[in-house]
Specification:
alpha/beta, 9 helices, 14% strand
């Protein structure tokens, strides 16, 4: 009798914990830096060592662009080729959907690295409007790297990546977009005390040593 009672209590407790975990808001780290700063590479290493899921805004947009039945495919393609920033409504919808699907599959997966977002004031305003109370931004992980190093890395990557935007013309546009639109967002978060800066000009392992020191403290 006591065993049955204990089993019932355990089931109810498990059910309660499950409901609480479902109500857990996503914990988000925004990952920003210029094209070629190594954001994707470092995110992969963070995922290997910490309980985070990596969501690349750019990868989600490129996947949506390639999806045959997508109503936004051509629009996204035009924006990416021109080095412009895709409308915020499309990007946030893709990010929110990806987070929801991840948490539905595994309720312990509620920590996310959002790579390449927010890229401008419109992105940030859209996020704070749509996601207010629905996700917590822990901090911004900023990979600081010179324009020259970023361009050289992207041109090298372009030899095998197949990406249409890994060419000098697109890169110069992307660098200008980054300087004019994204750097002010990083500066805004710096004023809020939420930026953790990493010197991304070093080797992959040396950069990750800095990243690891941050995540060992921040969790």
């Amino acid at each position: 009798m006591i065993g049955v009672l204990f089993a019932n209590v355990s089931k109810r407790a498990h059910s309660l914990l499950y409901r609480v975990s479902l109500a857990m808001k996503p914990q988000v780290v925004f990952v920003l830096g210029g094209p070629g700063a190594g954001k994707g590479t470092q995110c992969s290493k963070i995922v290997e060592n910490y309980n985070y899921t990596h969501l690349s805004a750019g990868d989600l947009l490129r996947a949506e662009r390639s999806r045959e039945e997508s109503e936004f495919g051509q629009l996204i393609d035009n924006y990416i080729k021109d080095g412009k920033i895709v409308p915020v409504e499309i990007t946030i919808n893709l990010l929110r959907k990806a987070m929801e699907e991840t948490m539905q599959k595994d309720d312990k997966k509620f920590r996310f690295l959002i790579d390449g977002f927010p890229r401008n004031e419109d992105n940030l305003s859209g996020w704070e409007t749509v996601m207010v109370g629905k996700a917590d931004v822990k901090f911004v992980l900023f990979f600081d790297c010179s324009n020259e190093v970023c361009i050289d890395r992207c041109l090298e990557r372009g030899k095998s990546s197949g990406r249409t935007d890994d060419n000098r013309e697109s890169l110069e546009k992307r660098i200008q977009t980054y300087l004019q639109s994204t750097r002010p967002i990083i500066e805004l978060y710096e004023e809020r005390g939420k930026v953790r800066t990493v010197d991304a000009s070093h080797s992959v392992d040396k950069v990750f040593a800095e990243v690891k020191a941050i995540f060992d403290i921040e969790g």
